[in-house]
Specification:
With 102 residues, the chain is α/β, with parallel strands linked by helices. It contains two helices and three strands. The protein is flat.
Length: 102
């Protein structure tokens, strides 16, 4: 069985309260297509930091940013979205990405 891609849901780029200890050394060994699904308010992987780290991935990188969602994909109430909405968006993006893998 071969791996065709890597789906990362809410990748924890660093431990809570320890942004200086980035968990991305293994990214440079990734040569397969990778989809990052992450909230735009994820306290364990800020959008600019995750984008910067993902540049190390040698395979094609794709993104699904969940607007106003935190690490658990829960959106702000003010967004008008529910957790179910956000999870549905994550699931739909994941399925669409898997379906287009070679």
């Amino acid at each position: 069985m071969s791996v065709r891609g890597l789906l990362l849901l809410g990748y924890p780029l660093h431990a809570a309260g320890k942004p200086e200890k980035v968990r991305d050394d293994h990214f440079r060994r990734l040569t397969l297509p990778t989809l990052f699904v992450s909230g735009t308010r994820d306290s364990l992987a800020a959008q600019p930091d995750l984008r910067r780290s993902a540049r190390k991935v040698k395979g094609k990188v794709s993104w699904c940013w969940l607007d106003s969602a935190d690490h658990g994909f829960k959106p702000l109430k003010s967004s008008g979205r529910t957790l179910d909405d956000t999870l549905a968006t994550a699931a739909e993006a994941s399925v669409a990405w898997v379906e287009q893998l070679p």
